[in-house]
Amino acid sequence: MGDSVMINVIWLLLMASGIIYAGMNGRIEVVTASAISAAKSAVELAINLIGIMCLWLGIMKIAELSGLIKVISFVLQPIVGLLFPSVPKNHPAMGAIIMTISANMLGLGNAVTPLGIKAMQQLQTLNPKKCTATPAMCTLLALCTTGFTLVPATIIALRSAAGSVNPTEIVGPTLIVSLVATIFVLIIDRLCRAVFRR
Asked: In whole angstroms, what is the distance from residue 82 CA to residue 94 CA?
């Protein structure tokens, strides 16, 4: 069974069990009211997010055209080289990895996914065993999962769209938590490499 089919089955079971439970308690109208309310809230949130996401994407485009992304990439290159020693310096995979990490640092969750996929495709070209992930692939996956973030743009946008009084107050905690998580996952990554290399 494919992943998407499994997810659909899980969602169907959750909805069916909720409807059955509400029916058994004689409160089926709550299900209808909740469904209508949730649909309305989802549309309102999506409309509110359009403007905020356009703003952040515009800022990212300005950063790209002004050369800020290249500066970030230049600063990250020595660090990324240490984290991915098996990837040649001038290989396209290195550029894709740097762009993925840069997007993660700027909190652009939606932009990270296609960049991460591109980086994995490039790393696969260096993989001698196509059915097994390389250490570089595992490291990239770990970094994308923890997502060290300087500016959590997507979360700020969501908080703002949801009516938060101070949507940027999470910048400090997000920075600290994502930094600690990234350091921890890199330590675990290196320990696993040492253990499974034997």
From this structure: 11
Residue 2 has pLDDT above 60, yes or no: no
Looking at the structure, tell me whether residues 145 and 186 fall in a common domain: yes
Number of domains in the chain: 2
How many whole angstroms separate alpha carbon 76 and alpha carbon 81?
8
Total residue count of the chain as it appears in this document: 198
pTM of the predicted structure, to 2 decimals: 0.64
Tell me how far apart the alpha carbons of residues 38 and 30 are, in angstroms, rounded to a whole number.
Answer: 12
78: its two tokens: 């020595």
- Give the integer Cα–Cα distance in Å for 114 and 103: 11
pLDDT digits (tens, 9 = 90+) for 49-72: 677 667 666 766 777 678 776 777
Torsion over CA: 173, 178, 181, 183 (sign): negative
